[in-house]
Amino acid sequence: MNFIQLTTSPAFLIPLIVGSIFFSIGVNFITHFYRFRARSTHVKGVVKAIEKYISTMRTADNMKSRQVYYRPWVEFTYKDTVHKTVGPSVNSLRHKLGQHVDVMINELENGEIQSKVNDKINIVIGALFAAMGVVAILVYLIGIGGNIIASIAMPILFWYIGHMISGSMLTGVSAIIKDIKEDGPKNNSTMIETKKDYAAEISNHNLWGNIFGIILLIAALWAMNHTYSQLPADTISYVKSDFSGFWSELTAGKRSESEKKTIALFGIGLFFFLTSLWSLCFTNLKFRSPGF
After folding, report:
1. Residue 146: helix, strand or coil by DSSP?
2. Which residue of 31, 47, 58, 272 lies most exposed, with the fewest beta carbons within 10 A?
3. Nearest to 89 by CA among 115, 68, 71, 72
4. Rama region for 98: left / alpha / beta (φ>0; ψ in -120 to 50; rest)
């Protein structure tokens, strides 16, 4: 069996197939959101409750992974009738009780309505799925040495199928996938509906957010200090006296390989330091008060 036969065998096509599916889901998730928004009527809704639930899934090694998610329940009025809809599920608190949000309404020919919260997190979710798909396709194309035509054709094919399904969902025509209609909370979920419940959840959310942020901050500071101390004394003196000159030499490849690696590790530590600092500031500024 030659190499071309190997790279087109079912086993070697798995990264391409999985990648194409993820890419199609991600791109169509984004385009469906924009198509829905373009044809919809917009009204103001109010966050009446925030649902907290735990999603359980199995990992590749057959272990259970549990993740806490939050999603807002929004109440809005359309043509003198009160309706409810839910926002996207994310693993952090993004809404407050009583918050006003934009709701998009698509009215079908049979009088039924489809509603979505106008939340740009949909674009982020879609982009993440598309990125995972691209990585898997690159694994097939570069890592395995797959066929470039298949790497282009298969994602386009899956995207086209998803695009057709998206269009039929928007018009109400029978489709393989229907718009999800939520009649109530998920099983074993908790509904945050009062000021007291919200304040308690915020306190718990801040506690764990601060603990994780502080641990990451300390680890980043240790890594920065440890890598910085590995630099020779004359290099440290050079950095302090003429940082721009040192940086120019570093980017031009004129410094030693050991210094390059040390500076790279210092940069990684600095990145995590800034990330943890931002996380701590963001968490405490956004959730310093219940917001009623």
Report:
1. coil
2. 58
3. 71
4. left
In Å, the largest CA–CA distance within the chain is 78
Query: What one-letter code names the amino acid at 78?
Result: Y
Assess contact for 65 and 56: CB atoms under 8 A: yes
The count of other CB atoms within 10 Å of the CB of residue 256 is 10
Do the beta carbons of residue 105 and residue 114 sit within 8 Å? yes
Whole-number Cα distances in Å, 35 to 28, 32, 45, 184, 185: 10, 5, 21, 27, 27
- For the chain, give the number of residues: 292
Q: Is the Cβ–Cβ distance between 227 and 269 less than 8 Å? A: yes
Number of other CB atoms surrounding residue 3 within 10 Å = 9
d(CA 25, CA 217): 35
**pLDDT confidence of residue 1:** 41
Are 70 and 52 in contact by the 8 Å Cβ rule? The answer is yes
Instruction: Quick: pLDDT tens for 8-50.
Output: 555 567 888 989 999 999 999 999 999 999 989 999 999 999 9
CB 29 within 8 A of CB 132: no
As given in the structure block, the two tokens for residue 205 are 């959310």
Write down the pTM of the prediction: 0.62
Phi, psi torsion values for 147, nearest 5 degrees: -80, 125
Which amino acid is it at 166?
S
The candidate with the shortest Cα–Cα distance to 42, out of 115, 111, 98, 108, is 115
Which residues are CB-contacts of 169 (< 8 A; sequence separation ≥ 6)? Answer: 32, 175, 177, 178, 179
Name, in order, each residue with C-beta under 8 angstroms of 283's C-beta and a sequence gap of 6 or more.
205, 206, 209, 210, 213
